[in-house]
UniProtKB/TrEMBL annotation:
Residues 330-401 form the Galactosyltransferase C-terminal domain. GO terms for cellular component: Golgi apparatus. It holds the Pfam family Glycos_transf_2. The keyword Disulfide bond applies. Keywords: Disulfide bond, Transferase. Residues 143-162, 275-296 are annotated as: Disordered. This is Putative polypeptide N-acetylgalactosaminyltransferase 13. GO terms for biological process: protein O-linked glycosylation. One of its GO terms (molecular function) is polypeptide N-acetylgalactosaminyltransferase activity. The gene is GLT13.
């Protein structure tokens, strides 16, 4: 019988959430731009509906476990305690311990200076320092013993138990001044030691089975790159489907699996529908995929003969692997697809490639455009971006920025300056489309140092997929007006 959660476990969490400073409580909605009171009531952990396609739940995932250590970077400024804690605990309880290498928390000079110390003093895993695999009785959270975590929630009661894994490394840092999410994410990436970096916002809830599909897609990309003679594989970034968490009710709802990230000539991010192929071309594509993966499976099986023969004595059948791969990758509901830009700035990439690409442009200020800039850079440098439908992460989508921008600037001015740096760094002659759309950007001063990022090795001309999309989207917007 699983050990019950002691009363002080629950009360410790309540005390932590109640420790929000009085200044933040005065007008919580204006401070956070989501319903922080509702977030506090929901608590630290709740059950979520499984929003994956049914084909995602039965498929196996194949990747090299030895090289699947993930460093998760969360940079935040003035986040509600309950929302941040829920982000961390969903990661901890819904991620296999062998993949969760470390959590890196960067506090970008939040008003609540006690938030991080108070969180690290929580007597619950993963903050409980002496909780490890050597503990005599690992703590298990069950639906009957964690009423606080699901009380007053409209979600269905948990049908599974949340078993606390072994100890997880948590690295924390607090900026001595407001630096912005861009600089904070770069700082977190420098602290990371995992094989992969995953950048996540501080008001998210990961869903069941969210990580394995991302790991598999990166592993396949690395194998394909290695086969083509590219050391470390091809640069590829993967994003989950971002389910919507309503800012007012905090209800969790599934998002479409047929949306991808894009931008217009203003260099503003937009969700756009995934292009739908005709039935004939779709069937042709599936046939090509099947032939490709049949050949790949046969090649993989041949190389596995010497290495995995011992598994046959335990009843392992190589045929299963081949059939699973073919069936999985021809299923369009579960197949990853290319996207012009990263979906909402939440993505995972090889740590090696992130640093080789010089990370996020340090000359971009505070917030705005960093995901588009990194996306363009990734495509230019021979990489690609894909959205993986079988990976689901909930995200609170706010209509406005709750925080103030440093140096007396506002969000529009900061974003316009950042966009000009992106245009001058990467768009070459196409930057005139940007200036035609945003003539005010011509008057914003920048210098040559700000465009130094464009000297990354192996970067070529802007790929047609981005240009065509940007032009088409702008034309669509003009027509609609």
């Amino acid at each position: 019988m699983p050990q019950r959660v002691p009363l002080d476990y629950v009360m410790t969490v309540r005390d932590f959430i109640a420790g929000t400073s009085a200044s933040e409580r005065t007008d919580a909605w204006e401070f956070y731009h989501y319903n922080a009171a509702r977030s506090d009531v929901i608590g630290a952990l709740r059950a979520l509906p499984d929003t994956r396609d049914v084909s995602c739940t039965a498929r196996p995932y194949h990747f090299t476990v030895q090289h699947a250590r993930v460093s998760i970077v969360i940079a935040f400024h003035n986040e509600a305690r309950s929302a941040l804690l829920r982000t961390i605990l969903t990661l901890y309880h819904r991620t296999q311990r062998r993949h969760l290498h470390e959590l890196i928390l960067i506090d970008d000079y939040s008003d609540d200076g006690d938030l991080m110390p108070d969180m690290l003093n929580l007597k619950i895993p993963p903050f409980l320092r002496n909780f490890s695999s050597t503990s005599p009785t690992p703590m298990t959270l069950t639906k009957s013993s964690s009423s606080y975590f699901t009380s007053n929630s409209q979600a269905a009661p948990p049908t599974n138990t949340f078993t606390a894994p072994t100890e997880v490394t948590i690295k924390t840092a607090r900026n001595t001044r407001r630096s912005g999410v861009i600089a904070s994410r770069n700082r977190g990436a420098r602290l990371a030691t995992g094989d992969y970096l995953l950048f996540l916002d501080s008001h998210c809830e990961v869903n069941v089975g969210w990580l394995e599909p991302l790991l598999e897609r990166l592993a396949i990309g690395e194998m394909a790159g290695a086969a083509g003679g590219v050391a470390g594989g091809a640069p590829i970034a993967v994003s989950p489907v971002l389910d919507s968490i309503n800012a007012e009710s905090l209800e969790y709802a599934a998002s479409s699996k047929n949306l991808m990230g894009g931008f217009d000539w203003n260099l503003h991010f937009h969700w756009i529908p995934r292009p739908q192929s005709t039935q004939q071309s779709q069937q042709q594509e599936q046939q090509q995929q099947q032939e490709h993966y049949q050949a790949e499976a046969q090649e993989s099986l041949a190389s596995l003969n010497a290495k995995t023969a011992y598994l046959q004595q335990f009843g392992w059948e190589r045929k299963r692997f081949s059939e699973a791969r073919i069936h999985r990758d021809t299923n369009t509901a579960a197949t990853a697809f290319k996207s012009p830009t990263i979906a909402g700035g939440i993505f995972m990439i090889s740590r090696h490639w992130f640093h080789k690409l010089n990370g996020f442009n340090p000359f971009l200020e505070t917030w705005g455009g960093e995901a588009i800039e990194f996306s363009i850079k990734l495509w230019l440098c021979g990489g690609q971006i894909e959205i993986v439908p079988c990976s689901r992460v909930g995200h609170i989508f706010r209509k406005e920025h709750p925080f103030h921008f440093p140096n007396g600037t506002d969000s529009q001015t900061t974003y316009l300056r950042n966009s000009k740096i992106i245009a001058e760094s990467w768009l070459d002659a196409y930057k005139y489309f940007f200036y035609a759309s945003k003539p005010a950007a011509r008057d914003i001063p920048i210098n040559n140092t700000h465009t130094a990022q464009s000297s990354v090795e192996e970067c070529t001309q802007l790929p047609a997929v981005l240009l065509v999309f940007a032009a088409c989207f702008s034309a669509t917007q003009t027509t609609q007006r």
